[in-house]
Write a structure and sequence with these properties.
Layout lengths: L25 H14 L10 H15 L9 H16 L7 H27 L4 H23 L6 H5 E2 L2 E2 L6 H7 L1 H13 L6 H16 L3 H21 L3 H25 L3 H10 L5 H4 L4 H12 L22 H28 L10 H17 L9 H23 L7
Antiparallel strand pairs: 1-2
Helix pairs in contact: 1-2, 1-5, 2-4, 3-4, 3-15, 4-17, 5-9, 8-9, 8-10, 8-16, 10-16, 14-15, 15-17, 16-17
Length: 422
């Protein structure tokens, strides 16, 4: 009788285990690549970043091996293409053509990265778990280096991982690093609110590290997004939970979290250097915001200016007239991509928000992802009024995830297949 417990060669002798062929399915490879891409998404202190190279590899590879184009993500693709065409039409207005070409090339790359995520995840929404794990690893890695840099834990750490006394980790700007931590922070918050505590002890520790990193970035946008996002996730979880006992548990967690936050804030502000920076950064309006040609003053004049320029001002055109950049992603969409690009960008943001809103209240296996991604995207869309977020890699990731879930939900409605909620 043949021994089925061990592989045999043609003459019946057993072979060592290292001679057994290893079979890896295409789905395993797909998830591994998504995990790897997300895990290096924070390493952007160098360019081209490893993330950029992996996205390019995925675009080429998936295009050859079956990248599905679903009609439900066509609005995303069409509006992104209009956005890109608007930039191409604005190219002649740029003062430096070479700089403009590089800038628009980055836009094309980011736009297609968003489409890539939407297409690959809508084909199999469970792949989002690989992105979650990779993103969590990236956020933790960047934060550990940011904290080490802020406290100068090893030689050269402060110079490498801080900027102007603010933690930035593996990013070039604290104002990008802080918001990058929002999505993993919200995902952990959701798990803590909906799962037993014993399953989230490790995640609670990671959450504390991420909160410390966001605080030390001294980014007012990151502070507001983190606090507001956590409260919004709590509210959505509370609304979606119809049972009385779990609701009481949620209120208890909220109370304990509030007490813990106040105690942690008092403890960290006892460090003089942190207290001084916090006092400086906590002002709602800084000098560079409220001056005559400050951030707010430039907006009115900028929007007036673009009404006369259908093709925009081109890359760098705005700060050749005003002392600084737009610091408003919507204004920048019009100044740098013309009327076509600006209208496409604004339409895409608001269409996404409107289309995805009803989904946060539907019980689905992926409800955690739609709730947390929607809140993160909404807050990014809000802070885009005061900051240039048009080239943030993780912003386009959020956009792609939302459209993947929109497409998945459309497929469920079309074929009347309703998977059980978790």
């Amino acid at each position: 009788m043949t021994n089925l417990s061990r592989p045999h060669d043609v003459i019946g002798r057993t072979r060592p285990f290292w001679h057994v062929p290893l079979t890896i399915g295409t789905e395993t490879i797909a998830r591994a690549l998504l995990f790897l891409t997300a895990s290096v998404s924070a390493l952007v202190i160098i360019e081209p970043a490893p993330y950029d190279l992996l996205i390019a590899l995925l675009l080429v590879g998936w295009s050859f091996f079956g990248l599905e184009l679903r009609k439900d993500i066509l609005p995303l693709l069409i509006l992104l293409c209009f956005y890109i065409v608007g930039g191409i039409m604005a190219l002649p207005a740029a003062a430096d053509t070479k700089e403009a070409v590089i800038f628009y090339a980055v836009t094309v790359f980011l736009a297609f990265s968003s489409f890539l995520y939407a297409a690959t995840l809508s084909a199999k929404i469970e792949r989002i778990e690989a992105i979650e794990k990779g993103y969590m690893l990236a956020a933790l890695f960047a934060t550990l280096l940011a904290v080490a840099g802020y406290f100068n834990a090893f030689p050269g750490a402060y110079d490498q991982f801080t900027l102007y006394g603010r933690a930035k980790g593996t990013f070039k700007d604290p104002n990008v690093y802080g918001p990058f931590l929002l999505l993993p922070t919200l995902l952990i918050t959701y798990d803590i609110l909906t799962k037993p505590l014993k399953e989230n002890i490790l995640k609670a520790g990671i959450l504390l590290v991420l909160l410390l990193g966001a605080f030390l970035s001294f980014s007012r946008a990151a502070w507001g997004m983190t606090l507001g996002g956590a409260l919004m996730v709590f509210l959505l979880v509370f609304i979606n939970e119809r049972r009385s006992v779990p609701r009481l548990k949620l209120l208890g967690i909220l109370g304990l979290a509030g007490i813990g936050l106040i105690m942690a804030l008092l403890a960290i502000l006892s460090i003089e250097s942190i207290s001084e920076m916090f006092t400086l950064r906590a002002r709602l309006v800084q000098d560079y915001d409220g001056a005559r040609l400050g951030r707010f003053g430039r907006w009115g004049e900028g929007f007036t200016l673009v009404t006369e320029r259908p093709f925009g001002l081109g890359v760098g055109g705005f700060n050749s007239i005003f002392p600084e950049d737009e610091h408003n992603a919507y204004l920048k969409a019009f100044t740098t991509y013309g009327w076509l690009g600006g209208l496409s960008y604004v339409t895409l943001v608001f269409w996404t928000l409107i289309k995805a809103l009803p989904l946060v209240f539907k019980p689905r296996p992926w409800q955690k992802y739609i709730v947390c991604t929607y809140v993160a995207f909404l807050l990014h869309a809000c802070v885009s009024f005061i900051i240039d977020s048009d080239h943030w890699r993780h912003y386009f990731l959020l956009l792609g995830i939302l459209w993947a879930i929109i497409a998945a939900e459309s497929g469920i409605s079309r074929y009347r297949r309703f998977p059980p909620a978790q």
